[in-house]
Fold each of these.
Amino acid sequence: MMEKAYHVYKGDGLEILAISVDSGPKSLVRNFIQEFELTFPALLDPDMKTMNQFRIFAIPASFLVDKEGMIRFRELGYRDWTDGDSTKILKELIR
């Protein structure tokens, strides 16, 4: 769902950055990205520093950050980023 939303809104300035906390080989993440044909960047954080810094206790977790770097929305767990509510949130953020 994130990839679909990315394709719809990337022309309006939406950027997505995935962070994987998998501790296995990098190839697992690379294979996942290839299998689902993801086109946004992914970082590796096997030490979970990001999770600790942002106090994340659920995976997946999504943060929407505005152009000034302020967190405007936080979602813990799965979210369909193409449904009506999510579309409204994304449109508000990128204008």
Amino acid sequence: MKLAMAPSPPSSTGDTTFTLRVTDAAGRPVRGGMASLDLVMATMDMGPNHVVLAPQADGTYRGRGAFLMSGPWRCEVTFAAKGRTQKQSVPVQAR
């Protein structure tokens, strides 16, 4: 799984577009999965901040969400397909 954000680094003053690219061990796109992420601030509880990523072409999943303030965050990514679930935590510094 590879997560990209636009803008990068993300801003706390607007939405961020999240693009998750999922490939198998051979590098082929994984289609037909369900993807989401939770934005978790590292220094305080900001409440639930869940983003659903919609399937696009070729194993790509995309959605929009917002970092509610500047500082250190984690993107807790979840991807499920073919009876398996993968999770990944990505550190982010919102500006």
